Amino acid sequence: MPGRWNAARSGPVGVGMTTFGIIGAGNIGSQVARAVIAQGHEVVIANSRGPETLAALVSELGPSARAATATEAAEAAEVAVVTVPLKAYRDIPVEPLAGKIVLDTNNYYWERDGRIPELDRGEATTSGLLQQHLPASTVAKAFNHIGAAEITTTGSPAGTPGRRALATASDSDEAIAVVTDLYDQLGFDTVSVGPLSESWRVERDRPAYVIRQNADQLRANLAAAPRTI
Ligand SMILES: NC(=O)c1ccc[n+]([C@@H]2O[C@H](COP(=O)([O-])OP(=O)(O)OC[C@H]3O[C@@H](n4cnc5c(N)ncnc54)[C@H](OP(=O)(O)O)[C@@H]3O)[C@@H](O)[C@H]2O)c1
Question: 72 CA to middle of ligand 1, Å?
Answer without folding.
Answer: 18
